[in-house]
Specification:
heterodimer; A: alpha+beta; Aldehyde Oxidoreductase, domain 4; 7-stranded mixed β-sheet; 24% strand; globular; B: alpha+beta; Ubiquitin-like (UB roll); DNA polymerase, domain 1; disordered C terminus
Chain lengths: 713, 157
């Protein structure tokens, strides 16, 4: 790595680590960037969806009570292929066929050239309702069950001086990307092209092939500029793209479907609510001897990505702590609400909220302060996690913990705040980067570089969703190839032009796709034999290099036993939150969050910081205000007026500090960053409330919950 | 109906109750103004009407008769503000950015942090946590000193 950096130390090209100008910057600040709703085509139809108004039952009859002239109408009967949204299980229909499992489930699709006419649509549906399951604890249907076990729990508890138990709960969370879900489907040449706001072009591609019974080459998916994702455009676009494609194929015309805010909030996925129970054995001096954790996730009506969310949730459930005797068991179950899906953090924010609040409670019972109890148990190099994964020589949680305590003068500050309405809380956390277990091996991601007349064109389907993928990947290529950053072209993700470089999820783009591009660039550089791209082009014409993922040597994973290296590497972080509590109203004002993070090598300091700041703000919303009110399986507050994400007035000052410990198998030493900040904000804030005497065990910590906790305290 | 759009007098035929947002996007083909919620909560559709920041999703077209309407496309003389959004991480996914910049432009040339926070409280951003936006606006408010560019290079050493 060092040698490589030396070799490309010219000023114009060695841009890794420097805040180069983001590729999409100018278009975004001038309004020139084109998002899905900005696209119009001749002959365009606008599509709309008729949805279930009940949470469970059979559809008895459907009546169209309006003038249907000029409308294209699609029901389950019009589906040419399989009526499924293809993902992990084939359980979710694209359109309900005879029965519905949740409010908002799509039943009928309509399209018309005149948007206004869609407002006249009146469809009445008669149902034979059935009793819905809304409480996950009462669900008879388990989608997935996983156990992680290490050591001997009985022995661990026998060694304990004290057993601490607790139950912690987290609610739904809505992604609230500011651009709602939207696609544009264009039929032609016996196939379909779908443009859309999405994270994973090849997920949509596969789903369309199956739904429409089309060969791969007849389906093309192109990402448009995407106004935020956060996981909310990981699985859902496959549903919406299917709907628009069905209408487009039936009408023979392009069809655009863009949800309004209420529809997006009502019908699309949310973060899985969780109930987490901890039972922990601990010695008097604060060492963990046994950890027993039970996790229940609410999956909603269909499987979507729930098994993998559960898996990641459980793998993070102990928090970044050492313990010889561990059992983590979890289930994700069916309820009759819209399916829950991917959301930044993917199960880990839920389980680490529990772990970190529980850790404070352990400290309280032993008379140890929050830093002490964490210091005793934080994972160190050479330690093993619950799956047996060994911590790398430059890994572990101790360094970020100590740095956060030092920078915030945690103990002094806490003493100074005693007796005031301000509290200080800490959370220590980690996040596995890349797909879980053997996921990356199964994905077999590919990335291509093609020589152009003056530089190189990048062929990946990693998507720019605001995080800066376009810029960061170009930095990696420019640096590895030794050409100016400006000469690296980053075309939009398009399945007809670029290979499948895997979904843009799991904090994997910089680390995994970036690494593939780094290797491809080094390969290409060798083939240039000292020529510039322009010289080589003139002499030999185009060259292209494709790299496919191979696992780093030594990584092992046993899917059956849940033993081995759950992730290629882990990012580590520690948050310290200071809050102010109004004891009369229960309103909590977060004042400052310091976040110390080890994300490996920082490729672009401004964007890496932006990921930490934005993720922390999202965690503040999760901690305090973002409450999805579900009534009989229906989101009762599906609007921005009463689903409250942080505004400028609610967002604390966020101080981000990077501790750069490079990961040898990531691009230029990078690990993942995207999801990490989502894990720590909520427990840090709730622990700050604990220091003020509010024993809060659930988020969001709404004023009602806080007042309730204070009255019991 | 006549009004001034980005400095030019225009005559646009549209229903008087049509949302200004839709008139701008559909009739004037200025798609830089975005719809985020349609209920006046998110500010993605912020435009200036006679110099004041308003949510274009809440304004019926009839209300801008004779008024000066400025959208992101017509924000003249604020290039430094826009550049600062690029440089300091004020824009990530970009969907709130046009509204955010228009709202920031309405704060005057030298807002302090409190002014910024208050002035942008009606503009939601889900990506940045607002910090990058504050840095961008503050940077644009400070006169550019020639030493700043050297500073960036000096760091490399």
């Amino acid at each position: 790595m060092k040698g490589a950096r030396k070799a490309h130390a010219t000023r114009a090209t060695a841009v890794v680590g420097h805040p180069v100008r983001r590729k999409d910057g100018l278009d975004k600040v001038t309004g020139a960037a084109r998002y899905i709703d900005d696209l119009v085509l001749p002959g365009l139809l606008y599509g709309t969806t008729i949805r279930s108004t009940i949470s469970r039952g059979e559809i008895a009859s459907v009546h169209l009570d309006f003038d249907t002239t000029g409308f294209t109408i699609v029901s389950a009967r019009d589906i040419p292929g399989k009526n499924v949204v293809s993902l992990i299980e084939a359980d979710q229909p694209s359109l309900a066929d005879g029965r519905v499992e949740h409010v908002g489930e799509a039943i009928l699709l309509l399209a018309h050239a005149d948007k206004e006419r869609l407002l006249d649509v009146r469809v009445s549906i008669d149902y034979r309702p059935a009793a819905p399951v809304v409480e996950p604890e009462l669900s008879p249907t388990t989608f997935k069950e996983i156990t992680i076990a290490k050591g001997d729990l009985g022995r661990g508890f026998a060694e304990a001086d004290l057993v601490v138990e607790g139950e912690y709960r987290t609610g739904h969370q809505e992604h609230l990307y500011i651009e709602t879900n939207g696609v544009l489907a264009v039929p032609g040449d016996g196939g379909i092209t779908v443009h859309g706001s999405l994270q994973c072009p090849y997920y949509v591609h596969r789903a369309l092939c199956e739904l429409l019974s089309l060969p791969e080459r007849k389906v093309r998916v192109i990402q448009t500029e995407t106004g935020g994702g956060f996981g909310g455009k990981e699985d859902y676009p496959s549903v919406l793209a299917g709907h628009a494609a069905l209408l487009a194929l039936k009408s023979g015309r392009p069809v655009k479907m863009v949800y309004d805010r209420a529809e997006d909030m009502l019908a699309t996925t949310k973060r899985h609510p969780a109930i987490v129970r901890h039972r922990t054995g601990v010695t008097r001096d604060g060492h963990l001897t046994a950890i027993d954790i039970e996790v229940l996730l609410d999956g909603g009506a269909y499987v979507t990505l729930s098994p993998v969310v559960l898996s990641r949730g459980l793998l993070h459930a102990t928090g970044p702590y050492r313990c010889d005797h561990v059992r983590v068991h979890g289930r994700v179950v069916k309820t009759n609400t819209p399916p829950n899906g991917a959301f930044r953090g993917f199960g880990a924010p839920q389980t680490q909220f529990a772990a970190e609040v529980h850790m404070d409670r352990i400290g309280e019972q032993l008379g140890l302060d929050p830093i002490q109890v964490r210091e005793r148990n934080a994972l160190r190099p050479g330690d093993t996690m619950a799956t047996g994964q060994r911590i790398e020589a430059n890994g572990g949680a101790l360094r970020v913990l100590r740095e956060a305590a030092r920078r915030t003068r945690f103990r002094q500050r806490r003493r100074a705040l005693r007796g005031t309405d301000r509290g200080l809380g800490v959370a220590l956390f980690f996040h596995g980067a890349g797909f879980t277990g053997s996921g990356e091996v199964k994905l077999r991601s590919k990335a291509t570089l093609e020589l152009t007349r003056r530089g190189v064109r990048v062929g990946v389907t990693a998507t720019e969703i605001g995080q800066g993928a376009r810029t960061v990947l170009a930095q990696i290529v420019a640096t590895a190839l030794g050409i100016p950053y400006e000469h690296v072209e980053m075309p939009p993700a398009d399945t007809s032009l670029a290979p499948d470089s895997g979904p843009t999820v799991a904090s994997r783009t910089t680390m995994i796709v970036g690494r593939l591009l780094e290797l491809a660039a080094r390969d290409l550089k060798r083939r240039l034999r000292g020529r510039t791209p322009a010289e080589s082009w003139r002499a030999h014409g185009p060259i292209s290099v494709t790299k496919e993922y191979t696992p780093p040597p030594g990584l092992t994973w046993d899917e059956e036993q849940y033993v081995g290296d759950a992730y290629g590497t882990w990012a580590w972080a520690c948050d310290v939150a200071e809050v102010e509590l109004d004891r009369d109203t229960g309103i909590v004002r977060p004042l400052r969050i310091t976040s110390v993070a080890d994300i490996g090598r920082v490729i672009h300091p401004v964007m890496a910081r932006g990921q930490m700041e934005g993720g922390t703000a999202q965690a503040v919303g999760y901690a305090l205000t973002e409450e999805v009110v579900m009534r009989d399986g229906r989101m009762a507050n599906a609007q921005l007026t009463n689903y409250l994400i942080p505004t400028t007035a609610d967002t604390p000052e966020i101080d981000v500090v990077f501790v750069e410990r490079p990961y040898r198998n990531g691009a230029f030493g990078a690990k993942g960053v995207g999801e990490l900040p989502m894990d720590g904000g909520a427990p840090a804030i709730v622990n700050a409330l604990r220091s003020l005497g509010a024993d809060v065990r659930a988020v969001p910590a709404t004023p009602e919950r806080v007042l309730d906790a204070l009255s019991k305290g | 109906m006549r009004f001034t759009l980005n400095g030019r007098t225009v005559d646009v035929r549209a229903h008087p109750m049509k949302r200004l947002l839709d008139v701008l996007r559909e009739d004037c083909h200025l798609t830089g103004t975005k719809e985020g919620c349609g209920e006046g909560e998110c500010g993605a559709c912020t435009v200036l009407v006679d110099g004041e920041a308003v949510n274009a999703c809440l304004v019926p077209f009839a209300q801008v008769r004779g008024a000066r309407v400025t959208t992101i496309e017509g924000l003249r003389g604020r290039r430094r503000l826009q550049e600062a959004f690029v440089e300091h991480g004020g824009a990530q996914c970009g969907i709130c950015t046009p509204g955010m910049i228009v709202a920031a432009a309405a704060l005057g040339r030298r807002p302090n942090l409190d002014d910024i926070k208050t002035g942008l409280a009606g503009n939601l951003c889900r990506c940045t946590g607002y910090s990058g936006i504050y840095r961008a606006i503050e940077a644009a408010a400070v006169p550019l000193r020639p030493a700043r560019r050297r500073g960036a290079r000096g760091k490399r050493r």
